[in-house]
Write a structure and sequence with these properties.
The complex is a heterodimer of chains A (325) and B (318). Chain A is of the alpha/beta class. Chain A is built from twelve helices and 13 strands. Chain A has a domain of 203 residues: Rossmann fold. The chains are: A alpha/beta (325), B alpha/beta (318).
Amino acid sequence: MSGPLLTVPLLEVRGLSVDIPVPAGTLRAVRGVSFTVKRGETLCLVGESGCGKSMTALALMDLLPRRARRTVGALRFGGRDLASLDPGAMNALRGDRLSMIFQEPMTALNPAYTIGNQLEEGYRRHRRSSAEGARARAVHLLEKVGIANAARRLGQYPHQLSGGLRQRVMIAMALMCGPDLLVADEPTTALDVTIQAQILLLLRSLQRELDMGMILITHDLGVVARIADRVAVMYAGQIVETGTAEEIFAAPRHPYTRGLLACIPIPGRTRPGAELGAIPGMVPSLVGTLTGCSFRERCDQARAVCADDPPLRAAATHEYRCVLT
Amino acid sequence: MSDVLLEARGVSRDFAVSGGLFRGRQTLRAVDALDFTLRRGEVLGLVGESGCGKSTLARILLGLLAPSAGTVTLSGVELASLDRKAVSRRVQPVFQDPYSSLNPRKSVSAIIALPLRVHGLGGEREKVREMMELVGLPARLADSYPGQLSGGQRQRVAIARALIMRPEIVICDEPTSALDVSVQSQILNLLQRLRRELGLTYVFISHNLAVVEHIATRVAVMYLGRIVEEADTASLFGQPRHPYTRALLASVLTPDPALDIPDTGLGIAFPNPLDPPPGCRFHPRCAEALPRCSSAVPRVHAAGQARVECHLYEENAT
């Protein structure tokens, strides 16, 4: 490949918004989110329930619920404009160049089809592969994700596998066509810590091997610290802070990021039994017109100026939306 | 030594499970000849992977599940000889999922008052008001329904319901696992404060080891139905002895970007609980296994209140 491909990001998202009509008006689930992902890079989207992180992923994949409306300033992937692709072309891309791992392997796998059927289907469609070719690829990937007796597993149904195995099957399925970008939504949340570490190691080694870009969505700050190259912290539908993992953990600038880090007990740093940090109050309603900093009602440093939309401030790779810090 | 509130001796619990269409029923031993002691005022953390039997043990301690073998005593009296109400006055649960553990068709005040009604006690309104204040629920929520509350508020309702009978022991089974990080810290702070103010004793079951290290005073590590190591929190986290405890602790992801993803070396083969390995149950995944680990069941090595069940601590271990 030629030079420019190395510098142009694999994925560029500018001004992505998702609106969902609800009885009370319009729910602004994602509000003007922008980020880029390079080949071989891992971007972690972090935030609590309802912050819009999963909606952002579904919007990229064009898998939003039917009622939701997506608007974008720019959405480019591998040099193509995703925003203007027709559904057929998007279908051809999804599962092939652009792949997703869903949070719940129990609900994302079809209980009525064997593991083999589900792994091979997309590969045969995207690659026009023979049944034997698809089968060989499926066995190869199941072995790669550490599943013993891979050939036998292909004939099994999802309910016959444990949660950890199902999650591995989901990962193998997402990687069947060797995607350029993998979007993983809470891929280890339902798993034991021992399995979690192994799945993360596996994702990273596969990422390096395929030089894949990866967006990992999680609420677990431990996972973020260990795997992210860059981190985007989301709150109330917006990215409030972006930076390298070092910047976010060592020198967080946004009061929300600081608050989150204070909430978790950190072995060796938090005194056992001591009072943990708390973020008082609740996330504001995202219905209707929203102005100013959405965190101001829970922020202990808020001032009058916070009622205005906070500017995006930047220092090198570190960006945050707060006038105070 | 401090007084023993709850004690289990040689407790086992078997479940009959279907082995498949043509295989008939098999027996799964979820808890296996386990000894367990809970002393007044402590927070005993119970950790282990899913399927290790920690929730089964919790249900046995609550008197909700009868052991297949062994005895459980509450202040020296056998649990089996006590009536359910008598047990529930002293031992109460808080479960993981505040979405499914509350009746969606009852109001907050009715949910919190239910134990009083079951026990035929009066003074409902006053006690409910007091309890809501204690757990930090605004009084205006008394007539709300669970569906109108946030996850954190629901867990506060569950805690208020558990505490209204003024129990001595609260068994918390993953009480913060379904909650967001910022809400989790509020519930942990609340549990800590209630323990101090009401002199409670907790069994705290969690898969989040950082949370257990933070809140527990003593920790028991379970593996396939056995407690394989037990010690006070500082020694267990500082000098873990059992290879399983060490692997478990190594897999904890502390939020430090300078550290890499750990390779625990545990492999992916979680053993089939229907057919546990002979000898030490952990030996197929153990990096330090000795020849005898695959044949002989390890003995318990106790020193004070700490104990470990592992061949590495035999005197003539080689």
